[in-house]
Design a protein that fits this description.
Radius of gyration: 20 Å
Pfam family, one: ABATE
Shape: elongated
CATH topology: Jann2411-like fold
Number of helices: 6
Distance between the termini: 42 Å
Strand order of the largest sheet: 1-2
Protein name: Gll4406 protein
Structural class: alpha+beta
Strand content: 5-15%
CATH architecture: Orthogonal Bundle
Number of domains: 1
Number of strands: 6
Length: 186
């Protein structure tokens, strides 16, 4: 499941193999342009230093809330307050639009398509995900070198790793650990 807020959270990538290397994709202007285009947020100019820092701070905020939710705990009240402030920073207006034979729908339109709007759209993506009530499906990859955030769409909600690469890597690590234990007699 592709989710706008998860792409932001996961923009701070760590090497899945445990080399210790990491990459902050927000510092790559080309990645940022692709990210904004992909999610229909490209109406803004390139961020200045303060706007980029706001994006980084939002990523940290969302990660803290995901960490709490994935651990089965409620998010800190201060974090929810901060999320609400981001949501409120971009005013919208309501508009009734015709959808052909299907009838009409209410559309929220941003008053201004600026960086507060981009942040609010990302925060709204996250808020909508939390509002679904499927909190146990919001997970963090159990590979300690990865920690990728993902939405578990499996039938029994038992997925432990973000993808097959991490799952295979962790199986190989467990196998090698068992082999070493057998060789040392432990």
């Amino acid at each position: 499941m592709d989710v706008l807020c998860f792409e932001l959270i996961n923009s701070e990538r760590h090497d899945h193999c445990g080399s210790g290397r990491s990459e902050d994709r927000l510092s790559d202007p080309d990645w940022l342009v692709r990210f904004l285009n992909r999610w229909g947020l490209a109406a803004v100019e390139a961020p200045d230093g303060g706007e980029l820092e706001s994006l980084v701070q939002l990523r940290h905020l969302l990660r803290r809330i995901v960490d709490a939710v994935a651990a089965g705990e409620p998010p800190a009240a201060a974090d929810l307050d901060a999320l609400n402030r981001v949501l409120q920073a971009a005013p919208t207006s309501r508009r009734l639009v015709c959808c052909g034979e299907e009838g009409y729908r209410l559309q929220l339109t941003p008053v201004c398509q600026d960086w507060p709007w981009v942040l609010a759209e990302i925060a709204a993506s996250f808020a909508e995900l939390l509002g679904t009530g499927n909190l146990r499906r919001i997970k963090i990859c159990e590979n300690p070198d990865c920690r990728w955030v993902f939405f578990d769409e499996s039938k029994c909600c038992g997925k432990r790793w973000c993808d097959d690469g991490c799952a295979n890597l962790m199986k190989v690590r467990r196998f090698r650990k068992r082999q070493r234990a057998e060789q040392t007699g432990a």
